[in-house]
């Protein structure tokens, strides 16, 4: 039996850690998913279990190497952003992998801006809102100021995708999709690290920048395969769409965060956009992509637990709940009770208002869809964009997709059936190094959702 040439992709999201094995036609021939319990850092704050993640990558790769049906040609990585691993000269982590939701000291923030520029100036230059620990550059600044003894031992501060890659290749590097995702590190106008990074000497702790298409020979397991340097997951998810579609579109990539990416809007961020949590990413070709985001996936999961607990139902009941326009009409009729106020988060709602869990769940998705509409509109730019693609978890949510189509009646709204867009994009980034076939142009199957007139939003 001849062995199948494959690419292995490790896709480490904030919640789910996945591995996909793709053949040359980008069919999934093996996949696995896992979740790891969070641990606590030295302050008692929850954080990623980096040791478990590291062992999982190496153990899974070792297992795949032993499968006689696969000939592993390449391995690549995508992970969530805003996460730095501080390694010593031997490549060993010196600290926990701090959570990007960790509270950032206000005094340290004030000290930073007093020295390096106002929040507005820094935000405009780096195309990112001021987000505390979500600005990865500020995490490294905090280490320098609060833990100087550890800072001195840092050989490199690696973004998480590049740390995972280094486990296999032994190469330490940085790349643009990770640097360019709300880190405060990159000056988008000057196309280099911001002056504050150099003035603080932080650039000396950042590994050399390498092109995202670069691969290195693997050191792990003594096998002749290549290792990519990894990508930021939101940027990786955009790659299949950029390859398959050339007319202007917006992609809503849904997961823990629901991120609207407009690769056809590279205009500088305005103060108003920054105040509304807009930012710019650098996509894999180095171009700026204007983006907005809401924490909707996380909030959805939390509120589903609350609904299930209140109505004594299983959380699994809501995974396949059908869209019922009559339920939405009922919620609209009850607007005097606050049912469709766009400025209300579902977590503020009293569940005793809802007579059934079906009403409550439709209201939850209604609230999320309205938030998504407001967020996505921020980056639409001119109206040359006429198509919206939705991938990830919410693309399978019939209620969400139907409401989104009605909220955007002048747009063609599609659910993308390629749930593993991030992983496929990660493999596509190094396509020429492992795949003998042409890049496919039929990777994405779309389901159209019509803007029905059955009720008005």
Automatic annotation (TrEMBL):
Record-level Gene Ontology MF annotations: kinase activity
InterPro entries in the record, alphabetically? ATPase_NBD (IPR043129), FGGY_C_2 (IPR049382), FGGY_Carb_Kinase (IPR050406), FGGY_N (IPR018484)
Q: Which SUPFAM superfamilies does the entry mention? A: Actin-like ATPase domain
Keywords from the UniProt entry = Kinase, Transferase
Task: Tell me if Transferase is a UniProt keyword of this record.
Answer: yes
| Superkingdom of the organism of origin | Bacteria
- Where's the Carbohydrate kinase FGGY C-terminal domain? 247-306
Asked if Transferase is a keyword of the record, the answer is yes
One GO term under biological process is:
carbohydrate metabolic process
Q: Which CDD domains match?
A: ASKHA_NBD_FGGY_NaCK-like
Q: Which Pfam families match?
A: FGGY_C_2, FGGY_N
Cite the Carbohydrate kinase FGGY N-terminal domain residue spans from the record: 7-227
| Family classification | Belongs to the FGGY kinase family.
Q: What is this protein called?
A: Carbohydrate kinase
The organism is Pedobacter lusitanus
């Amino acid at each position: 039996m001849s062995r199948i040439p494959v690419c292995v992709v490790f896709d480490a999201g904030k919640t789910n850690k996945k591995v996909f094995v793709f053949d040359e036609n980008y069919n999934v021939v093996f996949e696995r998913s896992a979740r790891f319990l969070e641990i606590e850092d030295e302050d008692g704050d929850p954080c990623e279990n980096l040791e478990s993640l590291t062992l999982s990558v190496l153990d899974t790769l070792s297992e795949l190497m032993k499968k006689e049906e696969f000939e592993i040609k390449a391995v690549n990585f995508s992970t969530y952003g805003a996460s730095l691993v501080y390694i010593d000269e031997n490549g060993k982590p010196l600290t926990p992998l701090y959570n990007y939701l960790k509270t950032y000291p206000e005094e340290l923030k004030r000290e930073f801006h007093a020295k390096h520029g106002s929040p507005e100036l820094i935000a405009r230059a780096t195309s990112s809102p001021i987000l505390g620990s979500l600005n990865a550059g500020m995490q490294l600044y905090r280490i320098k100021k609060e833990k100087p003894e550890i800072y001195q031992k840092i050989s490199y501060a690696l973004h998480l995708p590049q740390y995972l890659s280094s486990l296999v290749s032994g190469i330490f590097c940085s790349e643009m999709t990770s640097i360019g995702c709300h880190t405060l590190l990159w000056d988008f106008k000057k196309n280099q690290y911001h002056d504050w990074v150099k003035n603080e000497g932080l650039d000396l702790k950042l590994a050399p920048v390498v092109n995202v298409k670069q691969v290195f020979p693997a050191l792990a397991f003594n096998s002749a395969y290549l290792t990519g340097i990894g990508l930021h997951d939101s940027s990786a998810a955009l790659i299949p769409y950029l390859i398959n579609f050339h007319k202007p579109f917006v992609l809503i990539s849904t997961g823990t965060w629901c991120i609207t990416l407009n690769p056809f809007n590279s205009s500088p961020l305005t103060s108003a956009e920054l105040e509304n949590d807009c930012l710019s990413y650098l996509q894999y070709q180095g171009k700026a992509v204007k983006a907005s985001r809401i924490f909707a996936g996380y909030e959805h999961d939390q509120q589903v637990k609350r609904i299930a607990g209140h109505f004594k139902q299983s959380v699994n009941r809501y995974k396949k709940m059908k869209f019922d326009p009559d339920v939405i009409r009922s919620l609209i009729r009850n607007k005097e009770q606050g049912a469709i106020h766009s400025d209300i988060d579902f977590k503020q709602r009293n569940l005793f208002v809802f007579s059934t869990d079906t009403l409550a769940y439709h209201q939850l998705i209604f609230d999320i869809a309205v938030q998504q509409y407001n967020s996505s509109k921020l980056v639409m730019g001119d109206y040359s964009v006429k198509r919206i693609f939705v991938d990830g978890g919410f693309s399978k949510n019939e209620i969400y997709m139907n409401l989104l189509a009605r909220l955007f009646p002048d747009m063609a709204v599609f659910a993308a059936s390629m749930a593993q867009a991030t992983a496929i994009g990660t493999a596509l980034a190094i396509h020429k190094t492992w795949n003998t076939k042409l890049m496919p142009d039929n990777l994405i199957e779309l389901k159209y959702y019509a803007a029905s007139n059955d009720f008005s939003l």
